[in-house]
Amino acid sequence: MSGFDGTVTVALLRDLLDRHARPDQSTAIDDVLISRVTDPAPEGPTMTGAVVAVVAQGTKRLALGDRVYEYGAGQYVIASVDMPVTGRFLDAGPRHPALGVGLILRPELVAELLSQAGPALAPTGGTPSGLAVSDTTPELLDAVVRLVRLLDSPSDAAVLAPLIKREILWRVISGPQGAAVHHLGRADSNLTHVARAVRWIRDHYRLPFRVEELASMAGMSVSAFYRHFQAVTAMSPIQFQKQIRLQEARLLLATRPSDVTGVCRHVGYESLSQFSREYRRQFGTPPSRHHVPPVRQE
């Protein structure tokens, strides 16, 4: 792109996001979210959702299993599967809020773009990680700015937003980390099969399961399922379930700090001692003493 100045474009995006951010992160454009965080809160658990997110200001660190990702202004992160992560902004403050914009990934739209692209864009290599970080390209950053700018022109947004969202997806799919999104749009990909098991664990995290049942759900042998699940999530299925249970427990304890036994049972643990031990190992303090400060998003 001739005459492109990345610093100026990121600054423009930062100003747009700062102006349009809402407490609940929603916007008037479907599937577009804006985050504005003013506290460098302690590391906290969250689910990523399936999203591509561009950072305009601030630096965030995410931990997924034994993998650690750090990204900042002018970079983007792809989460192709809804996964439990622990993360925090490193430098957010009232005078320097962390600002980012996210676009929810819809597999059907990805599949439609792939059908138009044909086989020439087929990814190489094995099953990709469900989380990836990369630098934005001038073309991607320009499209993101144009999408957010439509919030100032609602009448234009109804017609142009779907087109620009497709452009953003195309820039990501054809970029260096596009394999994760590419696999999301293929019904027969290993990532899609793993995502089916991930959704089951996420929706039924309180229940015990047999890995053989999940492998059957994914249409894989047990050994292949373990391998591909680990590649996507950086965890085993049991570790994945434990992360979700502990995240949910931490959120519940923020409002029910004296009900450790009730929270333990609610998230699926039968043993209070096991729950306390794993909670302490995960968060550094026993559940009976854990206080979770709120993260201010304005």
Helix and strand arrangement:
Blueprint: H1 6-20, E1 32-37, E2 44-47, E3 51-57, E4 59-64, E5 67-72, E6 75-79, E7 84-89, E8 98-104, H2 107-117, E9 131-135, H3 138-149, H4 154-173, H5 178-184, H6 190-203, H7 211-218, H8 222-233, H9 237-255, H10 260-266, H11 272-283
Antiparallel strand pairs: 1-8, 2-7, 3-6, 3-8, 4-5, 4-7, 6-9
Organism: Actinoplanes derwentensis
GO molecular function: DNA-binding transcription factor activity; sequence-specific DNA binding
Protein name: AraC-type DNA-binding protein
Report on this structure.
Keywords: DNA-binding, Transcription, Transcription regulation. GO terms for molecular function: DNA-binding transcription factor activity; sequence-specific DNA binding. This is AraC-type DNA-binding protein. Residues 195-293 form the HTH araC/xylS-type domain. It comes from Actinoplanes derwentensis. There is one protein chain. With 298 residues, the protein is of the alpha+beta class. The protein folds into two domains: 6-184, Jelly Rolls, CATH 2.60.120; 190-238, Arc Repressor Mutant, subunit A (Orthogonal Bundle). The protein has eleven helices and nine strands. It has helices at residues 6-20, 107-117, 138-149, 154-173, 178-184, 190-203, 211-218, 222-233, 237-255, 260-266, 272-283, and strands at residues 32-37, 44-47, 51-57, 59-64, 67-72, 75-79, 84-89, 98-104, 131-135. The strands form two sheets. Strands 1-8-3-6-9 form a five-stranded antiparallel β-sheet. A four-stranded antiparallel β-sheet has the order 2-7-4-5. A hairpin with a 2-residue loop joins strand 4 and strand 5. Helix 4 crosses helix 5 (178-184), helix 6 (190-203) crosses helix 7 and helix 7 packs across helix 8. The longest helix is centred in the middle third of the chain and has 20 residues, at 154-173. The radius of gyration is 20 Å and the shape is globular. The protein starts with 5 loop residues before the first helix and ends in a 15-residue tail after the last helix. Residues 293-298 have low confidence and may be disordered.
